[in-house]
Structures are given as structure tokens and as C-alpha cells.
């Protein structure tokens, strides 16, 4: 029986692990390989890893680091950042990563979704939409770490991504990133209505209760978090954590 997935989200910056708030001011957390090893021990369902630098600096994915991550991980990994073509996507998958996350390149050229999906399989193609609220209502997709507006309506693009052969959608709220005040439930509901694809929601989780709210509303879904699984306590001390089996079962009921 399928269950919701509880997914730690890791952000890479200058070969280190960082966390942002609203995609700004990356705070150093530690070594990404060490984090992967800890999440192995905690039996995380899956891991999503995004390179904070690749698109902004217009550089290729760090294949050496990706290989190290893949060799250490005992859980499925989705990797995103700097992927612009099929060759890069295939190389990452060949290193042992299960899914590639595509964003700015496919926003400019949606046909790339079809090209990659037809060659590696839709199940390995994840579309990530970084989304901000518009000043006078509605939502818009942004790129370049939330600095570049695209004019693209996220809900229209969700439907386009599904038709183009994507296998999964990640909805990432820039407004909620790192705030730990709960998910943007309006954004999540509207996004879910646009597609039957597997969908993962990211941005805003501050407690297991926040995850439970999304699971209760959306049932079989991915709920991802960064700060929740990297910090502990009032003063946000760095401490990698993840719900145990008993806590997860409570979330699912």
C-alpha cells in the first residue's frame, strides 16, 4: 500500500550544506555527505538535494559531489541544479541518483521535459517550481534562487509539465521557505487540482503537525522540509533529525 513520503530537503552551496530563509542568506549547516549518512541511519523515505549555485553561476552540476552522495545514500535521491540537457541528466542517473529535478531549463524550453522523459523514463523526471505570491493576487514561478521572475503561471505549467511527460512535480514556496510557520495550503490545494501526477510540497514546515495537515488533506503525497529536519529548539541549534517509525505512523492516521 502506498504511503505519503516524508522527505528531507538539502541545499548545497560551495560544497557545503546550507539553509536559507525566503531563498536568502544561506546559513552553513555542515557537510552534505555527513547529513546523507545520518538520514541513512534514520531511514528517511527519500532525499531531495538542490544545488544553490549552479543556475545562478551558469555552471554544470558537480558530478564528483553527486557521485559521492549517490555512493553513500541508502535511500532514493532526487538531485536538481544546473541540468540543462539530456546528457547531464543521464550522467547523473548513471551515477546512481534515482531522479533528476529540472527547473529553469524546462521553463525556457518545455520540450526538454519530453526529450529527457522519453529517454530515461518519466519516473525519473521531476519538475521543480519555485513559486512566489504576486503583489495583487495569484502566484508566479521564479528562477535563479527566487531573484528572476518568469511571468509563468505555476498552475498552467503544472498541466503543461504533465502533458510533456514529467513524472512528478515539486511545489516550493519561496514565501514560506525557512520560516517554519506552516505550508501555503492555498497554493498546495490549487496545485494538486491541476494534475494527477505524484506531487511533493516544500516550504514552511515547522513541526510534524504541519506535515500531518498536508497529509490529511492530500493523502498520498510527498511532504518535504529543510529547517524542520536540520534544526532543533527555540534557538535553532543545528541537529539533524527525522521522525521515527512510530511518529510517522501517527502522521499517516
UniProtKB/TrEMBL annotation:
<dbReference type="GO" id="GO:0016829">
    <property type="term" value="F:lyase activity"/>
</dbReference>
<comment type="function">
    <text>IGPS catalyzes the conversion of PRFAR and glutamine to IGP, AICAR and glutamate. The HisF subunit catalyzes the cyclization activity that produces IGP and AICAR from PRFAR using the ammonia provided by the HisH subunit.</text>
</comment>
<dbReference type="InterPro" id="IPR011060">
    <property type="entry name" value="RibuloseP-bd_barrel"/>
</dbReference>
<comment type="subunit">
    <text>Heterodimer of HisH and HisF.</text>
</comment>
<dbReference type="GO" id="GO:0000107">
    <property type="term" value="F:imidazoleglycerol-phosphate synthase activity"/>
</dbReference>
<dbReference type="GO" id="GO:0000105">
    <property type="term" value="P:L-histidine biosynthetic process"/>
</dbReference>
<keyword id="KW-0456">Lyase</keyword>
<comment type="pathway">
    <text>Amino-acid biosynthesis; L-histidine biosynthesis; L-histidine from 5-phospho-alpha-D-ribose 1-diphosphate: step 5/9.</text>
</comment>
<dbReference type="InterPro" id="IPR013785">
    <property type="entry name" value="Aldolase_TIM"/>
</dbReference>
<protein>
    <recommendedName>
        <fullName>imidazole glycerol-phosphate synthase</fullName>
        <ecNumber>4.3.2.10</ecNumber>
    </recommendedName>
</protein>
<comment type="similarity">
    <text>Belongs to the HisA/HisF family.</text>
</comment>
<dbReference type="InterPro" id="IPR006062">
    <property type="entry name" value="His_biosynth"/>
</dbReference>
<keyword id="KW-0028">Amino-acid biosynthesis</keyword>
<keyword id="KW-0368">Histidine biosynthesis</keyword>
<dbReference type="InterPro" id="IPR050064">
    <property type="entry name" value="IGPS_HisA/HisF"/>
</dbReference>
<dbReference type="Pfam" id="PF00977">
    <property type="entry name" value="His_biosynth"/>
</dbReference>
<dbReference type="InterPro" id="IPR004651">
    <property type="entry name" value="HisF"/>
</dbReference>
Amino acid at each position: 500500500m502506498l504511503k505519503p513520503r516524508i522527505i528531507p530537503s538539502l541545499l548545497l552551496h560551495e560544497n557545503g550544506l546550507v539553509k536559507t530563509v525566503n531563498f536568502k542568506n544561506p546559513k552553513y549547516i555542515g557537510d552534505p555527505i555527513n547529513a546523507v549518512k545520518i538520514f541513512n541511519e534514520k531511514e528517511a523515505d527519500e532525499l531531495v538535494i538542490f544545488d544553490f549555485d549552479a543556475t545562478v553561476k551558469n555552471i554544470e552540476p558537480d558530478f564528483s559531489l553527486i557521485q559521492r552522495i549517490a555512493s553513500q545514500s541508502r535511500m532514493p535521491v532526487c538531485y536538481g541544479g544546473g541540468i540543462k540537457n539530456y546528457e547531464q541528466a543521464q550522467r547523473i542517473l548513471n551515477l546512481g541518483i534515482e531522479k533528476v529535478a529540472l527547473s529553469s531549463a524546462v521553463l525556457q524550453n518545455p520540450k526538454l521535459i519530453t526529450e529527457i522523459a522519453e529517454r530515461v523514463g518519466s519516473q525519473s523526471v521531476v519538475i521543480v517550481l519555485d513559486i512566489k505570491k504576486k503583489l495583487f493576487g495569484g502566484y508566479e514561478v521564479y528562477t535563479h534562487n527566487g531573484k528572476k521572475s518568469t511571468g509563468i503561471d505555476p498552475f498552467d505549467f503544472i498541466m503543461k509539465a504533465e502533458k510533456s511527460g514529467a513524472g512528478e512535480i515539486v511545489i516550493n514556496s519561496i514565501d514560506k521557505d525557512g520560516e517554519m510557520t506552516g505550508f501555503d495550503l492555498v497554493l498546495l490545494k490549487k496545485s494538486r487540482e491541476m494534475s494527477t501526477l505524484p506531487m511533493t510540497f516544500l516550504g514552511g514546515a515547522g513541526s510534524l503537525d504541519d506535515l500531518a495537515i498536508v497529509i490529511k488533506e492530500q493523502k498520498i503525497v510527498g511532504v518535504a522540509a529543510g529547517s524542520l529536519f536540520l534544526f532543533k529548539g527555540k534557538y535553532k541549534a543545528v541537529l539533524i533529525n527525522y521522525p521515527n517509525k512510530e511518529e510517522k505512523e501517527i502522521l499517516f492516521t
